[in-house]
Every structure is written in structure tokens, then in C-alpha cells.
Amino acid sequence: MNLKKQVLPLLIVSSLGIVSAPVFAIDQGDILVRGRIININPDSDSGDVYSSATGTNVPGTTVDVEDAWTLDIDFTYMMTKFVGVELLLDLSSQHDVSSKGETLNTLAPGNIIETRVLPPALILQYHLLPDGPIRPYAGFGFNYTYFFNEKATNSLDAGLGGVSDVSLDSSFGWVAQMGVDYDINDKIFLNADVKYMDIGTTAEFNSGALGHVTTDVDINPWVIGFGIGTKF
Fold first, then answer.
1. Is 132 or 228 the better-scoring residue by pLDDT?
2. Mean pLDDT across the chain
3. CA-CA distances (angstroms) from residue 84 to 5, 27, 47, 180, 229?
4. What is the pLDDT, as a whole number, of residue 11?
5. Interatomic CA distance for residues 69 and 117, integer angstroms
6. Full domain range(s) for residue 209
7. Cα(108)–Cα(104) distance, rounded to whole angstroms?
8. Lowest mean pLDDT segment, chosen from 12-16, 42-46, 178-182, 193-197
9. CA 53 to CA 209: how far, in whole Å?
10. Residue 18's pLDDT is what?
11. Cα distances (Å, whole numbers) of residue 32 to 100, 130, 149, 180
């Protein structure tokens, strides 16, 4: 199922106001709170790993980052009727890093690293129709991505003769957003939201076969969510 292809038409249709709903409306000083179930779908890319044992990049050793599901919550403060600031907080998600290049896939097939991720973000939003029952919005901001609990899988450990000291560097990046709120009564609204996050990291570990290994990975996920919200 390609969530990106399903969510974007939904946002466009909703913003046109095809469906009627009770008027909720937002105003300066309101605080919007939303909770969502989200899919984090990396558009990942990496270079070949660098090995201290050979002093060069090892051909055919690229990696891929798998998608994950989790929950998020955001708090949006409306500075004006049209402009808000969103603080986005996710529950941590676990992502698997898998071998992609032919050489690495032969040595250590499948998932090779597991890590947990927290990507809080601060986003400046513009709300197009604050008085309507269907309120599309767009935003741009910045995220900080924190990686923790990194560990090698049995596949990587066996394939490279023992692996230790696995780490992924945390990073800052930008985030772009498009979403829509749809009132279901005078207190609760539905929400659909899609974000693109600029996330990159350097992965490194020590191994028996390749020595100290490093590689740069662009993760750059689409984050697609559906949920409910209210205002205070």
C-alpha cells in the first residue's frame, strides 16, 4: 500500500471543501492538540561503507532503512488567526537498517542494525481557512533526530567476524508539512497530515573483518499520519 499516493489526494479533496461539517473555527490564542498514528517511510540512500582495514570504500556495501509505525502528538499555538507554531513529539520508533549492496548482502543478509529514533520538530504553520469546518494548513520548520539503543544483529555480527560499538550520529534538519483538520462536532476534529523530513546520519562500528567502519546515510522519511484533535 502506497500511503503517499493515498494521503495527498485526500488532503487536496478536503481542502476544496467537498464534504460539509460542523463549524469549529480557530482564532488567535487557541491551542490545538492532535494525536495520530503515523507511518515513517524513509526515502533512504547511502554510500558504500569505508573500512579502516582496507583504507578505502568497500564496493557493494550500501544500506537501506526500513519503515516503522508509531504514535505522535502535537501542540499548535495560534499566534494569529492564520499563523501557528507546532511542537511535534513522537513516541520513539524502531528502525531496521538492512544490507542493500551485493557485497554486504552476501556477507550479512537482511537486517544488520537496529536503532530507536526520536525526531521532535518545531514547525511554523499557515492555516488557509481558519473559520471553516475544513481547515488545510502548510508548514515549514526544523527537526532534531536522536538515535539511541543502536545494536548489531546476529547477521552482521556473524558476517563481519564480530561487531561492537555501533552508533548513529544524531542530526538537525528541516521539515516540510501539509495537512488538514476536519470537524466532526464542535469539540473534536479529524486530522490527516504528511511531512517530509531532512534526516541524515553517519553510522559506524568496529568489526573483525573490516576494522572500523563508517558510512553516511540519508534517511529523509515521509511521515504520514491520521488522527483526532481538539482545541483549548
1. 228
2. 90
3. 27, 10, 38, 14, 15
4. 52
5. 12
6. 3-231
7. 6
8. 12-16
9. 8
10. 45
11. 42, 12, 32, 13
User: Number of folded domains in the chain?
Assistant: 1
> Residue 114 in contact with residue 150, Cβ under 8 Å?
yes
Amino acid occupying residue 96: D
For residue 232, CA distances in Å to 30, 35, 141, 182, 213 come to: 6, 14, 23, 16, 50
The gap from C-alpha 105 to its chain's centroid, in whole angstroms, comes to 25
If pLDDT is split at 50, 70 and 90, which confidence band does 17 have? very low
In whole angstroms, give the CA distance from residue 112 to residue 123: 33
CATH code (residue 203): 2.40.160.20
> Alpha-carbon distance 144 to 97, whole Å?
20
User: Within the chain, what is the greatest distance between any pair of CA atoms?
Assistant: 66
What is the DSSP secondary structure assignment for residue 20, as one 8-state letter? -
**Grid cell for residue 203:** 553510522
Beta strands per DSSP E along the chain: 31-42, 45-46, 50-51, 56-57, 63-65, 68-78, 83-90, 93-99, 111-118, 121-127, 134-152, 163-168, 171-183, 189-197, 200-207, 211-218, 221-231
- 127 φ/ψ sector (left φ>0, alpha ψ -120 to 50, else beta): beta
Predicted local distance difference test score (pLDDT) of residue 142: 97
Helix intervals (H) in the chain: 3-15, 102-107, 154-159
Q: How confident is the model at residue 9 (pLDDT cuts 50, 70, 90)?
A: low
Pull the grid cell for residue 211. 576494522
**Residue among 87, 86, 88, 177 nearest 136 (CA):** 177
Q: Look up residue 149 and give its amino acid.
A: N
